[in-house]
Amino acid sequence: MTLHCDVAELLAAGGILDVDVDDAVADEHVRSSAYRRVVLVTASSRHRDRDRAIVATILRDPIEMVSKSAVVSLVDRVAMTMTSPAEFRQWSAELLPEIDQLKTEGYREFIRRRIHDWLFYLSIEGGHVPTPGELATVTYWMQRVLAEESRSPAVLAVLAESGSKMKIRNIAKNRAGSRKLRTQ
Q1: What global pTM score does this model have?
Q2: Contact 104, 59 (CB under 8 A)
Q3: 83: alpha, beta or left, given left = phi > 0 and alpha = psi -120 to 50?
Q4: Which H/E stretch holds residue 62?
Q5: Among candidates 139, 95, 85, which has minimal Cα distance to 117?
């Protein structure tokens, strides 16, 4: 397939009619914006059966940074709709063969780490309190998300003691000591 066909197919599948396909093909910034819109539509769907095909189409983009960014955005948005690590693990496992098609190892690894981070996050949302060793397996980004969003005093205590950066430890300490958290 050609890039023109791929972009036209993605826009049509997302019901996005106000993007000129020729403009998107000619300009990676327009295309990136179009992919973000496709990702929003895709992630908001209750059905996950087309996600792998959409990812495969996006990953055929000749500019891997554009396609990687769109796929990471989809992973993030879908993870936020999942209720369990098992559900997200199954969904993400279906994408891995497509992700492995990326030529740049760093991009493949980045997406795999993001999936790992979200699996970790979902397990914590389900009540798991991580050990310092488990906490060390996730990225600074995920540790910060947890420090800023977790409502679990136990999780915040682990972050306050074992977060990878002083900033994370301080956020967690401050949030663990806040009255607002104790009343939730």
Answers
A1: 0.92
A2: no
A3: alpha
A4: none
A5: 139
Helix (H) or strand (E) holding 16: none
| The pLDDT value given to residue 72 | 98
Distance CA 20, CA 128 (A): 47
For the chain (184 residues), the mean pLDDT of every run of 10, in chain order, is 93 94 96 97 95 97 97 98 95 96 96 98 96 97 97 96 97 84 52
Looking up tokens 């792998």 gives 52
The per-residue pLDDT for 102 is: 95
The DSSP output letter for 11 is H
Closest CA to 119 of 82, 85, 155: 85
Q: Is 181 helix (H, G, I), strand (E, B) or coil?
A: helix
Judged by DSSP in three states, 61 sits in coil
- Residue 1: exposure state from Cβ atoms within 10 A (0-12, 13-18, ≥19): exposed
Unique residue bearing structure tokens 């948005």: 77
Phi/psi region, residue 71 (left: phi>0; alpha: psi -120 to 50; beta: rest), is alpha
DSSP 123-177: HHHTT----HHHHTTS-HHHHHHHHHH---HHHHHHHHHH-SSHHHHHHHHHHHT
- Residue 84's contacts (CB-CB under 8 Å, 6 or more residues apart) are 122, 126
